[in-house]
Structure formats: structure tokens, C-alpha cells
DNA sequence: TGTTAGCACTCCGAAACGCTGAGTGCTAAA
DNA sequence: TTTAGCACTCAGCGTTTCGGAGTGCTAACA
């Protein structure tokens, strides 16, 4: 049977390891505020816990890490599941209310197929990201800090989203806020809401709102919505199989860059006909300097409305890939013009 | 202006580099059948091509690799796009015919949200993979090698799929084939079609068909359909952000394992209530030995019909994650029981 | 009897070193 | 113009060295 102290040490050690992912020694533990024993004492306890199989050393003179048995014990006895945060709850509930449109499905699938066939990562820019603008915005308080944001778009689409208001904001201020937003942001493409916010509205808010910092944070969150769903990726993990990405760091940098809507738009926006190839530095974005990008746009009524693309190392299999993009983009064009 | 020989060398070098991703020296090139010059001559040409900016060295005494300018030239002048293969064409055309059902959408989204909230990879086993069985199969030749395969499932669902017949097969044989398949496979769960094929039918075909090898290959392809879409992943790349996966090789092994339907089913099938945790070796699958798996099942009429799960390093944030899975699985259960 | 201080010992990991082999540039001969 | 020969370069790999973090053990202390 484990003593109180052993339980405590085990718990602290596992918690710590889960966070920092590094072996923990007796000295580190003894330095904690709530640890009133010397490192030597702790050392003894650690040795005991190791004998019991709850801890391991990575080598003779390293600190301890939890063993599988340790985790097992932790999960079974030391754990009180954390309650869900309100954001988490909201996300889950929203799941079932969102609708995915037929066109979105096609892009999603296209992205998958494209990367499946080529073994490169594919990026597709859906049409709305370029076209649809915000028409009207409303914010309906639900009591407490909760509220619903309602977005009406130029296409008549209505979307709503649960949000958390910043603590410090006054009802009066919410009104001001929404007014400013509507005035400044109606007509702005959804995709640009976020940027616009950052660049142009920060100053305005400083004038009109008490706690503009909190408000800015809140709005940044609010407009992550604009980013939603109009960019479709396929095969993000394909890059791992390219030898030039054997360094995880590189993959991360690239993936992080692709998460940035601004970068993706800059990369993919194109008004050229047919397939175009961008090699290495030509794209002008440092994080993607050793990648090539091959893209083709699809059109509606002879106007380019979106782009499909593949991204891979500069030494791409250009041969295979170009034909594929060409075909797919033509199919998409055809689809749009038949359907609408 | 580049000489014929220079063009040739450039082309060969880039093609080679695209394939093997290693600097290429004069000697390697001179060894090719179609290269009738000594390494010294080639060395001179390479030096010239480098002066012109088409090639680079990674260090003073390395072989050459293409520069960005080299790729540019290659793409613009040396490239004849390869024609699409028939498979590729089919995949693209099928894109627009497949329907994604509402439930599938929910799982797909759930997987995304789950991994977004936790920063771990999520795996969701949709209900059909476990439940639905094959009722009837038909194969309709379209002329040439093309055909449509029609699957009728126990739930009355009908799906069709373009396939390519093996070259050597006779019309008569197709009939035999379909008969055997229907006899042996009706009542078999969709997810097991593939396995069943491999294990039990290979012998039968050897007896009845001329070219059973080709036929087996063809069927393997045909039944990749059974695997389709019933497993949903979210955040496959999240693992890259965990320090224990800083070695790309590890990530690959894990991801490859998760592509194996058999493994995923073995991992996720569970008849326990509530959230269960599997730590490290407990799961019994070598490729996943340093991962923990947290799963919860959802039910329909008090019967478990599917599983949602998260996979991450053994030092997972169990605390946060358990509550989440619990909530989401309950929501799914509720959804199913309300809806059907 | 439980706790603590001190000390010799262990071993990882980073930095420094040396060697090998593939590949180059240059020169001179064919 | 092409080729052979030779001295030179340097990445990559294995080896060595060394400091530091952490241990186990012993002996003194409360």
C-alpha cells in the first residue's frame, strides 16, 4: 500500500512529466513550494516507487519518468477528470447544427483524392472565400457572458455562433461595438474580416471602449469564423514521406504557415489560365521557400472563382502532377457552369 | 544558348534528382547506357551548367543538384506532362457522384473538433463499419475493361463504383466470379470483406479461374471499397507537435499503422461502457506501443455501435481528455436515439 | 526510526577530433 | 574536343573527451 507521501509524490511527478516531458529528479521535486522534504528523502521515496514499478529511469543516473504501470495507477486512482470549459461545450453542441453544403463536400473530397493520387499535400480554395462578403452582424446576449453572434452574408446565408463575451464589457458598449463593426465591416469579404480587424479597427476601439484589449481578443476569436471551411486540405501528412522533410521542425513550420489564411490566399490567388508552377523562392514566402506550388484555377462564367493546388518539395514530379490539376480544374469549371 | 548535349544532361540530371533526391556526380551520369561521354567531359558540361545557374552544389566537392532556375527551365522547356492513368480519371469522375450522408458528416466534424480541442489525433469508428453487411453484389460490364460494381447492403443502401476489369478475364468467368462472391460474401460485414477475401477465397478462385492472380488483384481493389469512409480521422498532424515524435520515422510508423483498417478496428472495438484508457503496450500492437488510447463508445438502443477515441503519447493529458470523450460520446448516443 | 547532508559514481549529450570516400577542378596528353 | 590522371576539398560518420545532472549509499542528526 502506498503512503500518503508516496501518492503525493507520484501524482506531482506524473503531472509534471505530462507537462514538460523530461525526466524529473529529486532536487527538482524538493524545490516545489508544497514539498517539505529534502531531496534525499524524496530520493528514497522515488527509489521505492521505482521498486514497486510505478517509475522508471531512462538510464542509471537520470531522473524518473512514469512507467506504464505508473500511468495506469494515475488514471485509475489519482485522476479527477477536469470539467469541460464552456468553449469546449459550445464546440460540441455546434457540431450537430452546422450544415455542410454539397459543394463543400466536393472540394473536400477533391482535396483528398488529389493528394491520394500524387502523394503531395493539396490545397483548394473554395469559391466563397473570394466572393462572399459580410452584410450584417448581430450580437445577442444570452445572459452572463454568453452570447450568440449572427452573420448574414451577401449571398443571403445566415450563420450563427456561440461566443463568450469578455468579462469587463458593459451592455452599452456591446451596442457601440456592434455598430462600429457593422459600419466598418459590411461589404468586406469574409476571408478578410480578420485582417481588416487587425489592421484598421484596433485604433477605433481604443477611442470608444474602456477595455479595448479584451475587446480585441474577443473579436479576434469572433472572426476566426471567417476562416472557416473555405480552404480545403488533403494529405497534410504526405510531406512526412518526402526525404527533404525528415526534420520535423521543417514540417511544422510549413504546416503552421498553411494554417495562416493570409498566406494561403496569397499563395493561391491567381488570375492566370491553365496550370501555373511556382518554384521555391518565387512564391515570396520564407516558410515555404523550398517548396513548389502547382496551381490551376476553376471558373464560373469565365471568371476565376477559386484555385486548386498541390504543394511539395521543389523537386516535384511535375510531369504527373500538371496533367492531373489541369483535368480536375476543368471538371470543376464544368460542374459549376452546369449547376448554377 | 544550350547545346543539345547540355539539354540532355540537364534533363537526365533533374529527372534523376526528382527520383532519388541525392546530388548527382559526373561519374554516376557517365555510367548511364545512353551517356556516351567520359566523366571528365560531363564534369566540364556540369561546370558550365552551373555557371549558367541551372545547377548547384551543396558543398564544394559534392555532386550537382538542380537550382530553382534549373527547375524553372525544366518545367518551361523540358517537360511533357504525362497523360492521366485510367484509375486517376475514374477517381476524379467518381468524385462528383458520391454522396456523403449527414451522419458521416457529423463524424468527420466530430473528429476534427475533438483533435482541435485536445491537440491529439482522433479516430472515430462510424457505426456502419461494424454493423452493415453485404447483401448482394453485381458487376455490370460497360465494354472494354470498364465495369460498374453495385453493392447492396443489409440496410438497403446501394452504392456503385467504377472498376477496371483485369485484361485476361473472360465474360464467362465474370459470371462465375460474381456467383462465387455472392455465395460466399453475402452476410459478411462490409469491413470484413477484404479480410475474408484474402483468407478464404484465394483457394476457391484458383480452382475456377484461369488467371487467378490477376483476379485476386482485381478483387483486392474492388473491396477497398469496404474500407471506405467508416473510419474518420482528425488532426493526424497533431502528433508532430509532441516532443516524443520529434523523429519523423516514428510518426510515419504510427500513421502507417493507423491506415491499416485491421489495426484500427482491433484498437477501437470495445464493449465497455464509459471511457476506457489503454496505456502503451496494453494495446498489444507494436507500432503503437508508446501511445495511449482513450476511447468511449456510443450506442443505439443500448447496444454499442461505434467508438470515438483519441490517440497520443503515453503521457497524455488524461484529465482534460476523459471528460471530453465522455460528453461527446453521450451526445452521439443521444443523437442516434433521437434520430432513428 | 525517520530525515538529512555529503560524497563518490554513473552516464547522457554536446563539442572536438580524425578519417574515409565521393566528387571536384585543373593540367597535359591523345 | 575529349579523355586520363592527380591533388585537393569537405560532408558524414565513428571515436574520444568532458561537464553536469542525478543517483545510491553512508553516516550523522532530531
From TrEMBL, chains A, B:
SUPFAM superfamilies associated with the record: GAF domain-like (SSF55781), Winged helix' DNA-binding domain (SSF46785)
InterPro entries (UniProt xref): GAF-like_dom_sf, HrcA, HrcA_C, WH-like_DNA-bd_sf, WH_DNA-bd_sf, WHTH_transcript_rep_HrcA_IDD
Keyword terms, alphabetized: Repressor, Stress response, Transcription, Transcription regulation
Domain of life: Bacteria
UniProt xrefs under Pfam families: HrcA (PF01628)
GO biological process, one term: negative regulation of DNA-templated transcription
Family designation: Belongs to the HrcA family.
Record's function text: Negative regulator of class I heat shock genes (grpE-dnaK-dnaJ and groELS operons). Prevents heat-shock induction of these operons.
Protein name as annotated: Heat-inducible transcription repressor HrcA
Organism from which the protein derives: Fictibacillus macauensis ZFHKF-1
Taxonomic lineage of the native organism: Bacteria, Bacillati, Bacillota, Bacilli, Bacillales
Gene: hrcA
Amino acid at each position: 500500500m502506498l503512503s500518503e507521501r508516496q501518492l503525493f509524490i507520484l501524482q506531482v511527478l506524473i503531472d509534471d512529466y505530462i507537462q514538460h516531458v523530461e525526466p524529473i529528479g529529486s532536487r527538482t521535486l524538493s524545490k516545489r513550494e508544497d514539498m517539505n522534504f529534502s531531496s534525499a528523502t524524496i530520493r528514497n521515496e522515488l527509489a521505492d516507487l521505482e521498486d514497486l514499478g510505478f517509475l522508471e529511469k531512462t538510464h542509471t543516473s537520470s531522473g524518473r519518468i512514469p512507467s506504464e504501470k505508473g500511468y495506469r495507477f494515475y488514471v485509475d486512482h489519482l485522476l479527477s477528470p477536469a470539467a469541460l470549459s464552456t468553449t469546449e461545450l459550445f464546440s460540441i453542441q455546434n457540431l450537430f447544427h452546422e450544415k455542410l453544403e454539397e459543394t463543400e463536400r466536393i472540394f473536400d473530397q477533391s482535396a483528398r483524392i488529389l493528394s491520394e493520387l500524387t502523394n503531395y499535400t493539396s490545397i483548394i480554395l473554395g469559391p466563397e472565400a473570394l466572393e462572399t462578403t459580410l452584410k450584417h452582424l448581430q450580437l445577442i446576449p444570452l445572459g452572463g457572458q454568453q452570447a450568440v453572434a449572427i452573420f448574414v452574408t451577401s449571398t443571403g446565408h445566415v450563420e450563427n455562433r456561440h461566443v463568450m463575451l469578455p468579462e469587463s464589457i458593459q451592455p452599452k458598449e456591446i451596442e457601440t461595438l456592434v455598430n462600429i463593426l457593422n459600419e466598418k465591416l459590411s461589404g468586406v469579404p469574409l476571408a478578410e474580416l480578420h485582417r481588416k480587424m487587425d489592421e484598421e479597427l484596433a485604433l477605433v476601439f481604443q477611442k470608444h471602449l474602456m477595455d479595448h484589449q479584451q475587446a480585441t481578443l474577443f473579436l479576434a476569436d469572433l472572426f476566426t469564423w471567417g476562416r472557416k471551411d473555405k480552404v480545403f486540405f488533403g494529405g497534410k501528412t504526405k510531406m512526412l514521406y518526402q526525404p527533404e522533410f525528415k526534420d520535423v521542425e521543417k514540417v511544422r513550420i510549413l504546416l503552421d504557415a498553411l494554417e495562416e489564411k493570409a498566406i494561403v490566399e496569397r499563395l493561391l490567388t491567381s488570375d492566370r489560365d491553365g496550370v501555373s508552377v511556382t518554384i521555391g523562392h518565387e512564391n515570396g514566402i520564407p516558410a515555404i521557400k523550398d517548396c513548389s506550388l502547382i496551381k490551376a484555377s476553376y471558373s464560373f462564367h469565365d471568371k476565376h472563382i477559386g484555385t486548386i493546388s498541390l504543394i511539395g518539395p521543389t523537386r516535384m514530379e511535375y510531369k504527373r502532377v500538371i496533367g492531373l490539376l489541369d483535368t480536375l480544374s476543368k471538371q470543376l469549371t464544368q460542374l459549376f457552369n452546369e449547376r448554377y
